[in-house]
Write a structure and sequence with these properties.
mainly alpha; about 350 residues; about 0% strand; 17 helices
Length: about 350
């Protein structure tokens, strides 16, 4: 509305100056001074044209400045989410949304909604996160923005976290296709890793291998991503009783996690060998693998942060605040980093189950 007023004011100003010049011309002609005034009139006309151009440019410059400010606030919010400052992120997203809304930037509003989904995910409110991601996908689709693919991938991750594997499978496939169309290899790699892992858990090993091998290729130099896909391939080999191949893949994943500094991966890779040893009734070998996993897990100063980093989430163990009541903030979101905590619970469960089974086959 303010921009509309500025534009209207510019137009009215131009009309007023034009009317003034017309009056001068008429007066000059009446007084027989047309020749004397002609040069002045031409100069005045040039000034009017320049003035109109400047005035017309002002709203456009205002839009550019508002977009720059909105993008800046969106970047601030993303950094705050990554660092665990949820309240700062919420405030920055409000600022970004207000500016994007002023200039009716639908792509910006869609990306704000995508970031709000990431914020809700950090806070452990996965149902709200899914709703935000869904709204983001709709908004970004209307402007054919490539970030729509990230929104679809996030929807699939929330569906999987909620136990709806059929819906998640479709979302992952849709996301992979959208990333491929947009030429976003990193996103397609994440989608194919998710599809492959889901197929592996469902016993669809051929589909799993194809997706996981594609993921390894698409991740390129992303050692964390390659490590996760390679670990999933190791589990496929274990399920098919290709033990030598599975152990080699687990060792390869180990090296990739170490290279990436994704140390929670070093908790998970020993489980492949432990499972194989239990099946082969080699209890001592299984115990050694389980001990290695437990030693790494117990050695983390902040296991939640390490698990979150493995998952590609904000690498923090708890929500943070600047100059406020951290306890109240954490109490308001008791399920914060819920996915990372679930991964830790899985690891602890594997350790406990593995010890019982290893003891039984000794």
């Amino acid at each position: 509305m303010d921009l509309l007023r500025e534009s209207l004011g510019s137009a009215l100003g131009a009309v007023a100056i034009a009317a003034f010049i017309a009056a001068v011309v008429v007066a000059g002609v009446v007084r027989g001074r047309a020749r004397f005034l002609s040069a002045g009139i031409l100069a005045a006309a040039s000034v009017v044209v320049l003035w109109i151009s400047v005035q017309d440019a002002q709203p456009r410059l205002a839009v550019i400045e508002l977009r720059r400010a909105a993008e800046s606030h969106l970047d601030i919010a993303r950094r705050a989410i990554h660092d665990g400052y949820n309240l700062d992120a919420a405030s920055a997203l409000d600022d970004a949304e207000a500016r994007f809304r002023t200039i009716n930037a639908r792509d910006g509003l869609g990306r704000v909604e995508l970031a709000r989904g990431d914020l809700e995910r950090l806070q452990g409110r996965l149902d709200q996160a899914k709703a935000r991601f869904t709204t983001a996908a709709v908004r970004l689709n209307t402007v054919a923005h490539p970030d729509m693919a990230w929104a679809i991938l996030r929807i699939g991750e929330m569906e999987q976290a909620g136990g709806d594997t059929d819906a998640a499978r479709k979302s992952f496939a849709d996301a992979a296709a959208a990333f491929a169309r947009a030429g976003i290899a990193a996103g397609e790699a994440e989608a194919r890793l998710a599809s492959g892992a889901l197929a592996r858990r469902g016993g669809a090993y051929a589909e799993a291998v194809q997706n996981l091998k594609d993921a390894v290729r698409l991740f390129g130099r992303n050692a964390r991503g390659q490590g996760r896909a390679t670990l999933e391939l190791a589990w496929v080999s274990q399920a098919l009783r290709h033990n030598a191949e599975g152990l080699a893949l687990a060792a390869q994943a180990d090296a990739l996690f170490a290279q990436a500094g994704t140390l929670f991966g070093l908790v998970l890779t020993p489980f492949v060998g432990a499972e194989m040893a239990i099946e082969d009734e080699e209890g001592q070998v299984a115990f050694a693998a389980i001990d290695r996993a437990e030693s790494v897990l117990d050695g983390f100063p902040d296991a939640v942060a390490a698990a979150a980093a493995y998952l590609g989430l904000a690498p923090v163990g708890a929500l943070r605040v600047r100059g406020g009541d951290a306890g109240a903030n954490r109490a308001a979101f008791p399920a914060a980093q819920d996915e990372a905590r679930a991964l830790i619970a899985y690891a602890r469960g594997q350790i406990e189950r593995g010890r019982v089974q290893a003891d039984a086959v000794q």
